[in-house]
Amino acid sequence: MFIDCSDLIAENRPHGGQGVTVTDIDNDGAPEFLVTGTGMANRALKWNGQRLVDATDPALLDPAGHTSCLIAADLDGDGREEIYACNQGAEHRANPSDRLFAPFGTRWLDLLNQPENAEIAGFAHGRVVACLDRQGRGRYGFAVANTGEPLALYELDGNGRLVDVAEEAGLDVVLNARAMVALPLVSERMDLFVQIDGGANSLFRNLGDGTFEEVAERRGVADPRQRGRSIAVLDANGDGLFDLLCGVWQGSHRLFLQRAGGGFSEEAPSDLSLPSHVTSVIAADFDNDGFEELLFLNHGQPNRLFARRHEGWLEIDAGDAVEPRGLSTGAAVADIDGDGRLELLVNHSGSPQPLALFKCPPNPNGWLRVQPLTAAGAPARGAVVTCTLGTRTQRRAICAGSGYLSQMEPVAHFGLGDARRIDSVEVHWPDGAVALIKTPPANRLITVPHPPE
After folding, report:
1. H helices then E strands: how many in the chain?
2. d(Cα 318, Cα 304) in Å, to the nearest integer?
3. What pLDDT does 160 receive?
């Protein structure tokens, strides 16, 4: 399915890193890929109309940081996204290893390096992070987890200082987390699912008042004794409910299908569940046929791709993206060149390799892209978008962190297949606001502002 387009990356030198995220770094309305570096500088790649070129702001390079994960969200409600960086390079806890980059005009400032946040900075050491708008205010917090330490949730207080509100929210649980996703999964607001390495997963249900209850065992997704690595969210069987695809390191991969009422059952077919050195799982409609594909990125083993065929999942040829000797780690998808087809950017770890860029060949399938915004004009991560064509609906959640140490573009991408008429698009924001767009045109990017109060 995929063809290698890595020659479109300018100065694509060997690079060692883990995560990839997609955000608008320079505030020009177009997204960039932000790629972590391990023992080397982070990179930002921008489409200049012909290729991806380096656009890294010096403040974000952080060559000494050993960055594993970068996640973007609007922390302060000013319409621009801040960037949380989980770093693993600090030898002394007295020195903050994590970073929290905030844009001020044309420059970036590390909030964790400011005197007023010194107390928080001493404990800010994350392995994995997701953004979470727990109260639906359009101001996000960063949920940060590390091995054997309580989960933290960093928000800004009324004085502009960082505070850890995990205890107040009921999230201060010691976890050995490897991946997290945040979206309205089992409630109407943003819930938090945490995948664990060697223990039971956690599912925190949002109670609607800024607090959470843990319901993983009750809902059937605890799955103890597995070595979780990566999560993707999709409506795998077209019933209008979000399901969880969980990659397991050298164990059977899981596909938890949600039932009416919020319970889940594990129903991964045998071929899909085959153990591997999985690092990341991604669900996206790469060929615009109207059904998401499932991509398993493996470390030192061939990558695998599954497509929806005849109400089941069938392994198909991944083409150039198989990377049989690659060291695939984190990855993200975005329509970075604006042609209506998704690009896949893959980072590698273990031994420096050039970044890999893949996409599908052109085809006649239609598409629609929907970008919901917060009231301040920032990406509305955690919003849910439903696209209706005749009797069939597709659902997407705007990514708040997924895959492995990565974050996809803040756009709901829908393939239309041979359909050219879209009946409606409905957007649900984390605060309960709803917008309905009737018969939107195909082959367009539609930006949907938050409805006025």
Report:
1. 5, 37
2. 6
3. 92
